[in-house]
Amino acid sequence: MPLNALKTVLDIEPYKGGESKLEGFARPIKLASNENPLGCSEKARQAAIAALARTELYPDGAAPELKAAIAARYGLDPDRIVCGAGSDEIFQLLLRAYVSAGDEIVQSQYAFLMYRIFARPMGAVVRTAANDGLRASVDGLLAQVTDKTRIVFLDNPNNPTGTYLPFEEVRRLHAGLPDDVMLVIDAAYAEYVERNDYSAGVDLVAEFENVVMTRTFSKIHGLAALRVGWSYCPRPVVEALNKVRLPFNVSTPGQAAAAAAMADVDFVDRSRRHNTSELARVRDAVRALGYEVTDSVGNFVLVRFASPQAAAAVDAHFRKHGYIVRAVTAYGLPDCLRISIGATEQNSGMLDVLAKFPRA
């Protein structure tokens, strides 16, 4: 009898990250993975290099210096922080700690794909709430909650749409949940948001025992290659996650770079200013070409085309000219492309290529 993996694993459609290679181009312009076009903080880079001198030693699994840096930056209790190999790992840890076979998770229509990918090997049922347009629906999410629900995932802002729920709507969502259902707020793009009615969720975590907020160093901090994320949790959740996480889950260079990045406020501010300016320029220019573009608060735009065939044709057109953008068919948006905000000259080149697309 052959050795087979679990059916719950075999049925998973693997996550496909943004491509970085394109045949015929030595250095294609990659606008597919929402990376920081300014790179990372030089202080973070130097901290990572210095940490490489200690590669023979295991990392400190407790990550005390990184937790202290995060706590100092945001005024948090370091004992309520759990760090992971990207926020992805924290989602996986939460599912391992709180979800069993037959339990349910709830997510919005265009939720980050990793929630369902991590849930299915646990034998969990994934319930998806229809959106209100491209924005998550609080009423829709609450309607999907049953007595088997263990976690509700909310990526706020959402990737790939760029939309967000105002804080009062997030609070309304939480108020409608039973005390034994966890609300996980994935705030990976929080640093880019410049709206007065937005909150990343720290205040809810501080007030309630069933809310977790996750963040990442992969986006505005530009440390995607080092895989560092963190969460702010109630104390019982911290205890549970520390029991199921790997003992050395965040590398020493990753911890050092992330701690330095957290302290480099000037780099974050510069990255935000660049994104704010270029996001508006790209959005308005694409609209001027006659395409529908969401009012994104992240570091990307979602562009809708006349049909899935038209989106595929534009994608091929970009590739022909050395640009890689992101098809989002896997999210249920086959007529759309997600385009990351790059450096100024990259954005200008992308707009020139799009303007040359031969529309019928």
Description of the structure:
This protein has helices at 7-10, 42-51, 64-74, 86-98, 114-119, 138-143, 167-175, 202-207, 235-244, 252-263, 265-288, 308-320, 344-355, and strands spanning 29-30, 81-84, 104-108, 125-129, 149-155, 182-186, 211-216, 229-232, 292-293, 300-304, 323-324, 326-327, 336-340. With 360 residues, the chain is α/β, with parallel strands linked by helices. The chain has 2 domains: 7-39 and 266-355, Aspartate Aminotransferase, domain 1 (Alpha-Beta Complex), CATH 3.90.1150; 42-264, Type I PLP-dependent aspartate aminotransferase-like (Major domain) (Aspartate Aminotransferase, domain 2, 3-Layer(aba) Sandwich), CATH 3.40.640. The strands form 3 sheets. A 7-stranded mixed sheet has the order 2-8-7-6-5-3-4, with helices on both faces. Helix 3 runs parallel beside helix 10 (252-263) and helix 4 (86-98) crosses helix 9 (235-244). The longest helix has 24 residues, at 265-288. The radius of gyration is 20 Å and the shape is globular. The mean pLDDT is 95.
Give the arrangement of secondary structure elements:
Elements (H helix, E strand, L loop, with lengths): L6 H4 L18 E2 L11 H10 L12 H11 L6 E4 L1 H13 L5 E5 L5 H6 L5 E5 L8 H6 L5 E7 L11 H9 L6 E5 L15 H6 L3 E6 L12 E4 L2 H10 L7 H12 L1 H24 L3 E2 L6 E5 L3 H13 L2 E2 L1 E2 L8 E5 L3 H12 L5
Helix pairs in contact: 2-10, 3-10, 4-9, 11-13
